[in-house]
Fold:
Amino acid sequence: MGERPTILIIGAGIGGLTTALAIARTGFDVIIAERAAELTEIGAGIQLSPNAGRVLAGLGLDAAIAAVAIEPKAIEVRSGVSGGTLASIPVGLFCERYGFPYRVIHRADLQTVLVGAVRKAAGVRLLLGATAGDLLRHGDELLVKLKGRHRTLVRAAGIVGADGVWSATREQVTGASDAAPTGRTAWRTVIPHDNAPDSLPVDRVCLWLGHNAHLVHYPIARGAAINVVAVVEEKWDKPGWNARGDYRRIAERFNAWPNEVKAIATPPQSWQKWALNVVDPTGAWSEGATTLLGDAAHAMVPFLAQGAAMAIEDAAVLADRLAASPGNVAAAFAAYEAERKPRVNRVWHAARRTGEHYHLAFPLAGLRDLALRAVGPRLVMMQNDWIYRWRPPGGDGTENDLA
Structure:
């Protein structure tokens, strides 16, 4: 690829693609090895909060993302018992306070933007149908044999494992690849806008809270579809970590919820069921010139919608540390891990606590609902102010007041 040292990234998900774009600006060539023969996203929707938006804007992607994303009217929290609104946060407050909007986007649309930028970026190669095989150390370099469609030997100054919750790279770093089950599953479906029930709000993020379950829906695909995610307390009972879900099971689970929820959950439609597993963020992320990023290092429960955002933040910090120490990749990776761990650990635990609050039973659920109704939208938003106000190293060119 050239005379510059090469960083090999394992995995072409949102974290891996963002990392490639960020690192390519720091004096390294980048090779992305992706196991899949073609990139397809089946996760449907994703929420992009301001902390993630700053990083993507810094990579020159804000206009492209704005063209395919949606800025919903509000984030609305509603009772899964009464159907009443507990809190409504106008999304305009995010841009007013943080200088970046709160957006929702189809994962495939975000992936398309990132892949398009990767294919145009100088010094970046995306290899599909490629898996990392044997690894040998040769002085300061790592020699990695790629298998599959691309049989080649990569001479890398460093390796970044961005290969998700079931990371094979993590096994090389920690000696263990297992992720811990949470006792919850996520059921996902996408409803075409024309098939959405008339009672369903389609211009906002709606979060419905109930005992041992919650459901969230929001518009994606430029408003052409509604993304739906239902999270329930149940053990995973399938091989692998995702499977087709039986619509009768989810219909039964939500048959006593408000009419708007039943209108989503009870009709026969295609659902995909996912195991929710986590990776302890306090474990090792780096071993010499190999490091982990995103879910491979710290997969978390989705209750703050920060899983992808943390991977995007990781990308910015990792690139910054490599730029500061280009001649010592191992030291750069160690510095990245040290900088990221405290924040990620805090977000990881906050997401777990949030899930516990979402799924409360009476009478604690009643107290939670009273508290949400009592405080204004700004105070509800301020609970996570420390998450959204984060800035990437070096800033992002905005001068918004976060005081």
